[in-house]
Write a structure and sequence with these properties.
The complex is a heterodimer of chains A (about 350) and B (about 675). Chain A has about 350 residues and is mostly beta strands. In chain A, the strands form seven sheets. In chain A, strands 3-2-1-27 form a four-stranded antiparallel sheet. A four-stranded antiparallel sheet of chain A has the order 4-5-6-7. Chain A has a four-stranded antiparallel sheet with strand order 8-9-10-11, with no helix packed on it. Chain A has helices at about 1-5, 70-75, and strands at about 40-45, 55-60, 65, 80-90, 90-95, 100-105, 110-115, 120-130, 130-135, 140-145, 150-160, 170-175, 180-185, 190-195, 200-205, 210-215, 220-225, 240-245, 250-255, 265-270, 275-280, 280-285, 305-310, 315-320, 330-335, 340-350, 350-355. Chain A starts with a helix and ends with a strand. Chain B is mainly β and about 675 residues long. The chains are: A mainly beta (about 350), B mainly beta (about 675). At the A-B interface, helix 1, helix 2 and strand 7 of A face strand 22 and strand 30 of B.
Chain lengths: ~350, ~675
């Protein structure tokens, strides 16, 4: 289990609440940072059991960055292992994995508007409507159904064939009335949920541990597996990039990488026609391609790339660099051709991204 | 009696004893100064006296070291894991032995000092840096040497017994009972203790806010809640049997066996938003250790042999009830650690000024560490099952060519599995500058190695079988003075400089696979100043006052190559290592009464490798004070002892680890009786 991996080093690696290295603010005088109407939120995971997650915001138009938004605005910690963020209307929903909470924040002030608590180990949140959203979880074979307007859990979607202890549901994409979910840790499937019945009505077996997933312009799903790890009882294989036809829930294309390749994230551009992924370095290919590229678009040059996103506007590539995992991380910005644009400092272990349009 | 720390090796009591026994002692008019034995040449050693160890039945060795030594203890809360950062190194760089057998975890390399009750240890010797090589290798920070024996528990010849009961805040109860028998060449004792607590101390949670909502779910107000430490209860049981027989010419025989059973909940984080009524987070341990010792002194030599065995069962459970009948098990780890130990040591004194030592020890560690949760339903657990022989051989010679000068040299060789260290040399010297006040200058230098632990090598996932041993070079320079005057004043003081460079420092970092992997990534330069002062004065006829204090300035700097051009950690203090540490104990005694004040203080600690000082990224400096009042008296032919203690007297809010609160002001009462 991923938690277990982290537990092994909890006495060795620790961290702290973070703040921008660009900022010279007096730490004793919290101020609310201005947030541009459009830009990029960066979710900084922090260190396991150090409760030093944080939230940053980057304005691509002028290159300014504001860090530690949540703590500054709310005078409290964001929690332990902030993992993802979703924007719905004027609220941002920050999922904090090891705190078992989702915070709703006002995007203008970053102040908390409410919270959904008592989740097992939340990972991602996906809105079905103003009054219904799904929250995937680790160590749980249920996807939580919540009412965002009342910040309450209203029910659960049981995932068939999944044990609670090794339960893992991860990212969500929606095509029509169906939500597709990749089941990651110790799993090898992509399930389909009928949002009208809130029940799983389809499942597709894929390769070991599909870690991330995107939807292309043709409503096909692309999933990137991580292949497990050496010694895993669930198996260990090379990661795969898979194209899934959502019309008939079949694997339309399956591209194998090399054993021990590191594949944490798959992303897609705004047009939905160009894939980007980290496989040690950063690679890209059009969705029409049937073979993997041989050369990376960006060489990692020894950096530890932890996460990635692609701008829906200009296809600029933003890569999260954790540096040594115990100091402020860096975001490296490249243009669509892989040319370096700029870097900026954020919080500890930046991993997740969320675009505000 | 108040406790105190001696930095340079000899407690005042021991000094006075040595004066009586050692022909090298010198008595000047009014002033008594102990001459120095060859064994102590260049040795930087601190000893905790019995008063410190017997101060309270509720204390663990973690508590005692915190107030009586220069070691920084990192606590994850009250009665939770407590590890040592000695001279700016990591917990695995401090070796810990009990009656000669290493008890540092072969899995982690570190020792949890919160699981060692101070009442079960009769002597504590702290060997700093190079000085640890006289006993063991691998102590890049040093060695904490624990001794338990039957003789130390004897109150008098014949049958004796002691019972102590304590009660404290948050339903904390401590019970201790010992019984001993001494007659002729025999000594035997048994001691048991049981400690339990709800440990639900209150604290203000500044990491959280409690919201007040209106009818439309709008937040109208919020505040930092006053809440209790949840899931922090513990129950610890210890039992120890000790026996010894002095067979005169056939040597002295002894055996000591120590059993511990611990059942502790692990407190939840300050940022946990789950309902802990449905969560179990628990750590259990059952450990049995036994060491048999035979020692035969002759006129000019001493031969000592030891054999020991330890078995430890450790369990960690983290589970949550999702719904009636549905349980999510996130961690169910079970570890079995078996250690067999043997050692032989020979000391030869061909002349008063010469001492030669040769010793060897062998530890065989076998670890089975499995996690049944990191598996597929019905599948095998993940983990490893490995054994390793760890052997060490050392020879040394020490020479005191004059009463003022001492010189020594040592070479140690270590074998870990199939790996053999390069020879580990150490040299020692001291010189008495002013004999009348015992002013001595000491110097030592050594290399050292620490081999990777079994977890470093074999943990699944993450173990790295290609790790190299950590390599260290250390030198020490110090001055010390100790003397007594007319039996009314006892004084000691010391100050020393240490400097260590450690290459191939093993550091766990996230790997490309998403889990943590250890690698030899750092070079650390640890250096600083250790100082201590102690004094005891008797005045009038019934008054006595004592003071001891220690101060450490510790720099522990990442001196390696940056991991990338964005790495700002090079040249910075390692996380969680305080630059300044201070502790002091002051006490006054009068006719069976004793009033003691203790304080420990630490400077700000960084939690980021880049030492950034921004919102919430550092742990603020703090000081914690304790106050206690004791009274000893006789009643019904029994010796009674009553004590009241106030811990964290000024209700200081502090943390030694992020997101882990420590208790505020709390109270304890103790009553003991002896026959």
């Amino acid at each position: 289990m991923k938690f277990k991996y982290i537990t092994l080093s909890m006495a060795i690696v620790a961290g702290a609440f973070t703040f921008s290295s660009c900022s010279n603010d007096d730490p004793d005088t919290p101020t609310v940072d201005p947030v541009a109407p459009a830009g990029l939120y960066i979710i900084n995971e922090g260190n396991f059991q150090a409760s030093n997650s944080s939230l940053s915001f980057y304005d691509p138009t002028d290159g300014t960055v504001a860090n530690n938004l949540f703590r500054t605005a709310n005078d409290m910690s964001l929690g332990d292992l902030a993992y993802s963020m979703t924007i719905h209307d004027d609220l941002g929903w920050v999922v904090v994995n090891n705190s078992g909470v989702v915070f709703a924040i006002d995007l203008e002030t970053n102040k908390e508007k409410g919270r959904i608590t008592n989740l097992t180990s939340p990972r991602f949140m996906h809105f079905i409507s103003d009054t219904k959203a799904y929250i995937t979880q680790l160590y749980d074979n249920r996807i939580a159904i919540v009412n965002p307007s009342t910040y309450s859990i209203t029910g659960y979607i049981d995932v068939p064939g999944m044990d609670a202890s090794s339960g893992s549901t991860e990212m969500m994409v929606q095509v029509g009335k169906y939500v597709y979910v990749n089941c990651w840790s110790y799993q090898n499937s992509i399930i389909r949920i009928d949002t009208e019945t809130d029940r799983v009505d389809g499942s597709l077996t894929v390769n070991i541990q599909p870690k991330s997933m995107v939807l292309d312009r043709d409503n096909n799903i692309w999933a990137l597996t991580d292949g497990g790890y050496y010694g895993s009882p669930y198996g260990h294989e090379a990661p795969h990039l898979m194209k899934i036809d959502t019309r008939n829930m079949t694997v339309a294309l399956n591209l194998e990488m090399s054993l021990n390749d590191y594949t944490p994230i798959l992303a897609i551009n705004g047009a939905g026609d160009q894939l980007y992924w980290i496989c040690n370095d950063v690679y890209t290919m059009p969705i029409t391609s049937t073979s993997l590229p041989t050369e990376p678009i960006i060489d990692s040059e020894g950096h530890y790339y932890y996460g990635m996103t692609v701008s829906p506007d200009d296809s600029n590539i933003y890569i999260a660099d954790a540096v040594d995992y115990v100091q402020t991380g860096k975001i490296h910005r490249y243009d669509a051709q892989g040319n370096f644009v700029s870097s900026f400092s954020v919080g500890i272990n930046p991993r997740g991204f969320c675009w505000r349009k | 009696m108040a406790s105190r720390l001696k930095i340079l090796g000899i407690t005042l009591a021991a000094t006075l004893a040595a004066v009586a026994a050692d022909p090298m002692s010198v008595t000047l008019p009014g002033i008594t100064v102990a001459a120095r034995r060859p064994a102590d040449i260049g040795r930087v050693e601190s000893r905790l006296d019995s008063a410190a160890l017997r101060e309270s039945v509720a204390l663990s060795l973690s508590d005692v070291l915190g107030f009586n030594s220069s070691i920084f203890l990192k606590n994850y809360g009250r009665a939770t894991t407590s590890t040592a950062n000695f001279r700016g190194t990591s917990p695995s760089h401090t070796q810990v032995s009990w009656n000669g057998m290493r008890i540092s975890s072969p899995m982690l390399g570190s020792t949890d000092f919160s699981l060692i009750p101070s009442y079960f240890v009769d002597k504590v010797s702290i060997l700093h840096g190079s000085s640890s090589l006289s006993d063991t290798g691998g102590g890049l920070g040093g060695l904490v040497k624990l001794t338990s024996d039957a003789a130390s528990t004897m109150i008098h010849d014949g049958l004796s017994a002691r019972y102590v009961q304590g009660i404290g805040s948050w339903k904390t109860f401590d019970e201790y009972f010992q019984i001993g028998y001494a007659k002729g060449q025999w000594r035997a004792s048994a001691r048991v203790s049981y400690s339990s607590s709800e440990n639900d101390f209150p604290f203000t949670n500044t990491d959280k806010k409690e919201n007040i909502y209106d009818d439309n779910h709008n937040i109208v107000s919020s505040y930092h809640p006053r809440q209790r430490n949840r899931s922090g209860a513990f129950k610890d049981f210890h039992a120890m049997l000790s026996a010894s027989y002095d067979a005169r010419r056939l040597g002295r025989w002894s055996i000591d066996a120590w059993y511990l059973s611990s059942n502790r909940e692990l407190p939840i984080l300050t940022t946990d938003y789950t309902d802990n009524r449905f969560t179990e987070n628990r750590q259990r341990e059952e450990t049995l250790r036994a060491v048999a010792t035979w020692s035969r002194p002759a006129s000019r030599s001493r031969l000592t042999a030891k054999g020991g065995y330890a078995h430890s069962w450790q369990a960690y459970d983290y589970r949550r009830d999702l719904a009636p009948g549905v349980v999510s098990v996130m961690n169910r780890s079970r570890s079995h650690v078996n250690t067999a130990f043997g050692s032989v040591a020979w000391a030869w004194y061909p002349a008063t000024a010469w001492l030669f030592n040769a010793d060897t020890d062998v530890h065989y560690n076998h670890v089975t560490s499995l996690d049944y949760a990191s598996s597929i339903p019905g599948g095998p657990p993940t983990g490893y099952d490995r054994g390793r022989v760890e052997a060490s051989v050392a020879v040394s010679g020490k020479w005191r060519p004059s009463s003022r000068l001492g010189l020594g040299a040592l070479v140690r060789e270590e074998v870990y599995g199939s790996k053999v260290s390069a020879p580990i040399p150490a040299i020692f010297a001291d010189y008495t500058i002013v004999p009348s006040i015992g002013l001595v200058a000491k110097a030592s230098a050594s290399r050292n190695y620490r081999f990777p632990t079994l977890n470093d090598l074999y943990t699944v996932p993450g173990g790295n079988a290609d790790l190299k041993p950590e390599r260290g070079f250390t030198y020490d320079l110090s001055l010390s003075s100790e003397f007594s005057y007319n039996d009314r004043l006892e004084f000691s003081a010391s100050a020393g400089w240490y400097d260590s460079r450690i290459d191939d420092w093993i550091h766990w970092l996230p790997s490309p696979r998403g889990f943590y992997v250890p690698s030899n990534v750092k070079r650390v330069h640890a250096y600083g100043i250790e100082s201590q002062v102690g004094a005891s004065i008797k005045f009038a006829t019934t008054w006595q006052a004592r003071l001891s204090a220690s101060y450490t300035w510790s720099a522990s700097i990442n001196d390696g190559e940056p991991m990338s051009e964005d790495d700002n950690s090079v040249g910075k203090q390692l996380p969680y290592i305080p630059r300044h540490s201070f502790s002091a104990i002051a006490s006054v005694m009068w006719r069976g009464w004793s009033l003691a004040y203790k304080i420990q203080a630490y400077s700000e600690r960084f939690t980021m490798s880049s030492n950034e000082r921004v919102l919430g990224s550092t742990l603020p400096a703090y000081s914690v004070s304790n106050l206690s009042l004791d009274k000893s008296f006789s009643l019904w032919r029994l010796q009674w002892h009553a004590k009241a203690a106030v811990n964290n007297l000024f209700d200081t809010t502090y943390r030694t680890v992020l997101s882990r609160p420590m208790p505020g002001i709390n109270f304890e009462l103790f009553l003991s009786l002896e026959i």
